[in-house]
Amino acid sequence: xxxxxxxxxxxxxxxxxxxxxxxxxxxxGFSYRDLAEHVGVKTASIHYYFPQKDDLLIExxxxxxxxxxxxxxxxxxxxxxxxxxxxxxxxxxGGPRDQVCMCGMLAADFASVSDRVRAALQAFFRVHETWLxxxxxxxxxxxxxxxxxxxxxxxRTLFASFQGALLASRLFQTPERIFDVVAGIESRQAAxxxx
Amino acid sequence: xxxxxxxxxxxxxxxxxxxxxxxxxxxxGFSYRDLAEHVGVKTASIHYYFPQKDDLLIExxxxxxxxxxxxxxxxxxxxxxxxxxxxxxxxxxGGPRDQVCMCGMLAADFASVSDRVRAALQAFFRVHETWLxxxxxxxxxxxxxxxxxxxxxxxRTLFASFQGALLASRLFQTPERIFDVVAGIESRQAAxxxx
DNA sequence: GTCTATAAACGGATAGAC
DNA sequence: GTCTATCCGTTTATAGAC
Lengths: 195, 195
Prior knowledge:
195 residues, 68% helix, mainly alpha, DNA-binding, homodimer
């Protein structure tokens, strides 16, 4: 996923650059000073909009979540499930190579974030896992994916695979590892596949 | 995986507590002061052993890697592959609930670590992926796991699943998600399974 | 080897001018 | 709204006594 254009209001630019920095370096890996330099303002201006760093984190996370949700809701539900899964992987692989999912990053920063942020992260995970559950059950019906015993558990694992694959993709500097995930799923597709 | 007992030499205690702190909070989430308090020395003593934080990171990572490798080498190769996979998952789930894999954590901290650390992380990933590749191919032979088209790619995905599942397990405060991963694999086992 | 003391830069955060 | 100036604790790191 790509960062929004940074040509909006100061507030919007702050949020956009905060998302980028968190996805690159994590919550403890950037400062108001870093962020201010990226936006082209002074740190006091950031404190004007977001008195505490946690306030900034909450807004950056909520914005990221809703933009991500728009993207997955934009995936045409009339497509075969396997094709929707491909789109999802393309979405993940399409982001900058030096950035991972903001929520995967913040899950790693679990010890450093507030309970409010933790709850928002859980919500993000659940939304994606629910969407993937539907893909898996639809795939069993339309024949594009092999039926599985427990679609919810499979979806949890699948989402974990994507998050892990994003970290590995950056570590090895290749988007291949994201597509390994879908290739694995699809290599198990029913013989009577309808693509 | 559990941290080593912290009753060794000062140097050993520093390394052990550094591993714990990194697994809890990440590389940018702890300071020499935190570490010194845990060990019961002053920060200058830590600088005596590890002048730069990167020196400490390298040693903590190498120690973690070799201890982890001992653990996976300790999994009896005469066991059916599926049983070995169970052991692997138990090893991951057996660690403290507030800690994830040190290398998953540092993969998230990718932007903050030196090239030397990045290379060591890649090596860690490859070792585990290679071990899992062997489990998958053995599983196809002994019938305890379903054969797959590309065992190497499947192993990469499987390792990513475990890393992602560790993050999710901590986020949701339940080890269940680690066992989801093996349950998914084993639910695809061949009908003629030999366990 | 471990300590005290200190340097110098950085961290989040605030007050008040414009 | 954005700035300058500043507070004050923290951070990594070093010098030198014991």
